[in-house]
Amino acid sequence: xxxxxxxxxxxxxxxxxxxxxxxxxxxxxxxxxxxxxxxxxxxxxxxxxxxxxxxxxxxxxxxxxxxxxxxxxxxxxxxxxxxxxxxxxxxxxxxxxxxxxxxxxxxxxxxxxxxxxxxxxxxxxxxxxxxxxxxxxxxxxxxxxxxxxxxxxxxxxxxxxxxxxxxxxxxxxxxxxxxxxxxxxxxxxxxxxxxxxxxxxxxxxxxxxxxxxxxxxxxxxxxxxxxxxxxxxxxxxxxxxxxxxxxxxxxxxxxxxxxxxxxxxxxxxxxxx
Amino acid sequence: xxxxxxxxxxxxxxxxxxxxxxxxxxxxxxxxxxxxxxxxxxxxxxxxxxxxxxxxxxxxxxxxxxxxxxxxxxxxxxxxxxxxxxxxxxxxxxxxxxxxxxxxxxxxxxxxxxxxxxxxxxxxxxxxxxxxxxxxxxxxxxxxxxxxxxxxxxxxxxxxxxxxxxxxxxxxxxxxxxxxxxxxxxxxxxxxxxxxxxxxxxxxxxxxxxxxxxxxxxxxxxxxxxxxxxxxxxxxxxxxxxxxxxxxxxxxxxxxxxxxxxxxxxxxxxxxx
Lengths: 273, 273
What we know:
Two copies of one chain form a homodimer. The first copy, chain A, is α+β, with helices and mostly antiparallel strands.
């Protein structure tokens, strides 16, 4: 029996999503509570849509878990599990919803996009939001950022913005990259792509901040696209400003098809000879 | 030499503003650092515009302090003190500005209004804002709150909403009381008055929530105004949702006059016989 969990957490006291021996992680915390609350004989594994790094937050993380058949009707299990998790979990992680997903649903491979928001401020420090908004020392020009961001949109090799992983592609479809100055005074950078490689959002924002503060030109940023190596010139922004806000899934009928596509290796379209 | 300090803090780890022996308070923390950074022989006293309770936050607290004459030009002292405080203070309290105020300025008695915002949510818990947004179990109707709030505006005796203090008046001029559902989904109640008595904002919001969730009628709320005793029927909202956002001062020429007025005891206008 597969269940879907919609999860929010403050990343400040977690060593990221992925379970690590001896460290407090979101996956470890949740898997531990699932085992205790459901009195499972064997440990279970949560599979998530976006493996967030240490210190990164989430409002819209999605995960699935496969439970042994207990003879109880799945919707009943979901409702009861949601109730028990609400009581048991510490305040910095919340399971907002437990549901029975459509057949073929896979939290990671069914996802068609992930949306992150990065928050930064060039204003005086605000102690109320200091665990969620990263300080930047120089004034940021949001219009300059948005002009420069358009060069990054579309299907590209983002190797310059990714921490290298052997054998993994760094080709991604960047769908949205836009900055807004919000009424509270800080800047929110919204980023949406089919998927992200490691440290990609924080590097994209790092690159944009270089341009938005005037330290680098928009041309410098544009030339980093479709390079095939990580660039040491791109600063990686601190984790605390980043929130996984939402994960998109297709309509139920297309779930299986999508998972097959996502497992296939992404490639850039070949140029015509 | 009098200096003005503009201060922001996250109230979560403070036992309120007012210094108390053996407890961490905003006043205690700041007075301690002023003494150390300026190597003062005698302790100094900070006077603030709004003495916030334990757990209450501030973005716009204002305080003044009188320093012994060091022979240095006051603006120079202010700039240097701001720089040192920025380096020395822990992350949950920030002195945003140190300035030399106009003659006659008194952080408490010159203030002509205080603006607070109370944040609450009737949506699923958000671990990212849990130290700043108070949960409410029932759905809140913002339109109903705003309709009911108008009955409280103006010069009234707010004794029903205040913790009793012998000899202190509870007559206040309530200038603004309005609720908004913000894009993030929670509700912000903005309250502005010439001044507030103890627990008044949290009680006003508590009364509005009773009405906005349908537990009490708007008439119940309206009848609490101009009573002369604290009402046990009004719930006091938790401290964590409250932020002192801004303090208003008159133009410099009127500062002295304002302080004299504020020291005088407020009275309701006598009815004609």
